[in-house]
Design goal:
It contains four helices and no strands. It has about 120 residues and is mainly alpha-helical. It has one domain: 23S rRNA-intervening sequence (de novo design (two linked rop proteins)), CATH 1.20.1440.
């Protein structure tokens, strides 16, 4: 197993979590938005937490289940980002940057889950 510093999904999910935390701070401080950004904070940071937990899974099934949960959290993050855009809490530019990262995570996690369960 790759070390965390060399593992793409660990790196990408942590970077996305940090971006979600920073967006949460911005939205609560500057836009006084507390509900949607809290949901994004929860699911956006959960992706990396589930990835880390999966890497120490007790079995292939445990690994796959945790990665699948991470995938579900990434999909939910996509939804909250769309709502934040469509309610004008974030700009199109901010959305485009965040959604690109989110969709990249979804692609990576989808590939991991498919590979895990098709072996």
């Amino acid at each position: 197993m790759k070390e965390d510093k060399d593992n793409l999904i660990v790196i990408e999910s942590k970077a996305f979590a940090i971006r979600c935390i920073r967006l949460y701070q911005y939205l609560t401080d500057n836009k006084k938005e507390f509900v949607m950004c809290r949901q994004l904070l929860r699911c956006g940071t959960s992706i990396g937490a589930n990835v880390k937990e999966a890497l120490r899974g007790q079995s292939k099934a445990d690994f796959g289940a945790k990665m699948n949960i991470a995938l579900k959290e990434a999909n939910e993050s996509e939804y909250w980002l769309e709502l934040l855009l469509e309610t004008d809490y974030i700009s199109q530019e901010g959305f485009d940057s965040m959604i690109d990262d989110c969709k990249r995570l979804i692609r990576l996690l989808t590939a991991i889950v498919k590979t895990t369960f098709n072996k």
